[in-house]
Amino acid sequence: MPTTSDAVTRPPPTAPPTTADGELGGSSTGRAGRTLRFVVQVVLTVGVTWFIIDRVGVDLERLWSLEFGGWDVRWHWLVLSVLVLALGYGISAVLWGRMVRELGGPRIPPARAARLFLVANLGRYVPGKVLQLAGLTVLAAREGVRPAVAAVAAVLGQGVALLGATLVGLGAFFAPGSEVRTWGWLGVGAVGLFLVLGSLPAARRLLATLWRRFSREPDATTPPVLADPAFVWRWTVLYTVNWSIYATAFWLLFLGLAGWATFLQAGAAFAAAYVGGYLALFAPAGAGVRESLLTLFLAPLMTPERALALAVVARLWTTGVEVLPAFAMAPRTLRGLAPATAHGGVRSGDHDPPGSTHREDPS
Question: How many domains does the chain have?
Fold first, then answer.
């Protein structure tokens, strides 16, 4: 029979580990689930990529026999393409900082916004899109940005940027010699309908709901800018300009490696392929899917094998211009992640934004 002292000193029995669903053996089950998800993502990525490449008619033997010496390299276009692409990344960062400001957050200097934006973008190179957004939210908190403001700015920025990329990408359907202009007009109509719906009171109520969800305060005051009917239109124009710069950068890359093509044939194709890759939620950073779609768009301009090689070069080009500076800035940016509270920041763990657990979320 246990004594009183036994009851005090003896630790209480602990429950066996469980999963989120209450099943036993949480750690092993969780690992199995993550492994299965990874396998499914790889299978889907390879399957979709191979299907598109096969439809284009790429001959793998001819692809491996391609020689770089066969490219008509013009270095001045290549250097200019890198500079314009870097400008596009910088403008994306400034736009995010401007949206933070419109939502009631502090002003973030452009250079600092670029540093936060690029480092957070490293999260896009893992499957799922939420890690990039969560990382930007956490880093912004160190600048005194409330989690709700940072999260909503990131989510809205991603959504409107995708809309801007779609508008630019639709130009590929109207390129000289295109046989799919009907689909292009359907796309223009769909985007136009979305913008009209985005101006309606129901859309503004949806934005208010999004704000309350991220702020975790049912009675939170919605920033006045979200009640502005022109909000979606204004930001769509800004991100369309931003994506026009990205498309121009690829057009310059194309001119530097493959000779002449119109902007709609090359630049708009790059934006269209990006949208397709982004919507492939199972592929990290759209890998494989984006390249195969770009090959499909460029195939009328060159052999399928050369188009695929150029698509791979484009991936290395965009990744290098984005990732190399981000890696250089990451140690300083990530040092001491627990944000200070001196300027309105929040301590780690206070009002954690949704998704900050880095779970993958098909959004």
Answer: 1
